[in-house]
């Protein structure tokens, strides 16, 4: 980031439905080294269309209209969990993206102004530079996991620690397991069945099916689904985003038999090979809660954890509590795990669309 900035830098709100403005924003994101898929207009529009949470894209611009910074926001609304401006909704990143330190300050102030105008909402920034001033630093809750992809399949196998590699070899040797990659309705259907089962078993409401569909439609070739099958049955599946040489498996899971079959191990190993074939350089395993089983599993796969820092602001000090590890929600989680899957899939999206 460059210190200083043009004196006449200002903030405007872009119209995501204007093709020229949306394309200018996308071009800026795709050219910026610190950007993520969650800064893209495609993400903002997909979340808005699928969940009803309004998207807002703030831009720091020069008088010529040249974009020098962006802050994507969703106005998240939930009867159970309250409201907030979130950058970005349903994402693990997407904080302020800017060329200049002054752009960061201007975008942070514009976000506060927008939050006040909408009823003194709190703001959650996931990633990006520290806004400074009266923003809170929120750290110690999440870990990120990423590393470079190996040069070939054998090198990738050897990069996995011995104990986990032995489990993966069992899956590789299982002739009943196969994998496929696609983007059609069949892949969406099977992915959703697997993912919904997985999150129900974890005690979490599943997101609306149309969110996955909207992301695939909006991202085009920059997103796909990989499924591991035992015969014809889908047992593990993941929806992956591809951004600036980085493969980001985002929504994934397995059914109850996945552990016995080691199909999740096979899922991500095959995804590494698929990402390499696509020209990706980095495999980003995403974030996990500190102390969680997911975090331990990713580390056992050969990924070292990196602490993540988020930032928040609230005019009154109150913030949303959407932490699944919160004592307040543990009983709800235990009850959710016991719901029949059809009931969880019917009710879950109504709850989850306000959680992102």
From TrEMBL:
InterPro entries membership: Acyl_CoA_acyltransferase, BioF2-like_GNAT_dom, PEP-CTERM_FemAB-rel
The protein's name: FemAB family PEP-CTERM system-associated protein
Protein source organism: Sphingobium naphthae
Top-level taxon of origin: Bacteria
SUPFAM superfamilies (alphabetical): Acyl-CoA N-acyltransferases (Nat) (SSF55729)
NCBIfam families linked: pepcterm_femAB (TIGR03019)
Occurrences of domain BioF2-like acetyltransferase (ranges): 163-299
Entry-linked Gene3D superfamilies: 3.40.630.30
Entries under Pfam families matching the protein: Acetyltransf_6
């Amino acid at each position: 980031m460059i210190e200083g900035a043009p004196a006449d830098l200002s903030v405007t709100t872009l119209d995501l439905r204007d093709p020229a403005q949306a394309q200018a924003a996308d071009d800026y994101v795709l050219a910026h080294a610190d950007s993520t898929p969650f800064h893209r207009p495609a993400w903002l529009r997909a979340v808005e269309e699928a969940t009803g949470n309004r998207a807002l894209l703030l831009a720091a611009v020069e008088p010529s209209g040249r974009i020098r910074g962006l802050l994507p926001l969703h106005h998240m609304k939930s009867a159970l969990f309250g409201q907030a401006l979130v950058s970005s909704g349903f994402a693990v990143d997407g904080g302020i993206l800017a060329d200049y330190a002054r752009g960061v300050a201007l975008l942070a102030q514009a976000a506060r102004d927008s939050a006040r105008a909408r009823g003194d909402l709190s703001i959650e920034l996931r990633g990006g530079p520290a806004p400074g001033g009266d923003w809170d630093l929120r750290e110690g809750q999440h870990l990120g996991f990423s590393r470079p992809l190996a040069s070939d399949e054998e090198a990738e196998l050897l990069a996995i620690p011995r104990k986990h590699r032995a489990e993966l070899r069992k899956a590789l040797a299982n002739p009943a397991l196969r994998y496929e990659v696609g983007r059609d309705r069949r892949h969406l259907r099977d992915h959703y069945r697997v993912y919904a089962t997985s999150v129900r078993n974890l005690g979490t409401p599943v997101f609306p099916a149309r969110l996955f569909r909207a992301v695939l439609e909006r991202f085009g070739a920059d997103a796909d689904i990989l499924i591991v099958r035992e015969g014809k049955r889908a047992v593990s599946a993941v929806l992956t985003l591809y951004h600036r040489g980085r493969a980001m498996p985002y929504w994934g899971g397995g059914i109850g038999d996945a552990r016995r079959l080691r199909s999740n191990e096979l899922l991500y190993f095959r995804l590494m090979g698929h990402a390499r074939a696509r020209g990706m350089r980095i495999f980003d395993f995403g974030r996990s809660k500190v102390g969680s089983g997911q975090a331990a599993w990713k580390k056992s796969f050969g990924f070292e954890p990196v602490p993540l820092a988020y930032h928040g602001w609230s005019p009154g000090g109150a913030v949303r509590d959407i932490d699944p590890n919160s004592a307040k929600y543990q009983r709800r989680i235990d009850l959710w795990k016991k719901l029949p899957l059809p009931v969880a899939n019917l009710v879950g999206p109504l709850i989850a669309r306000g959680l992102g």
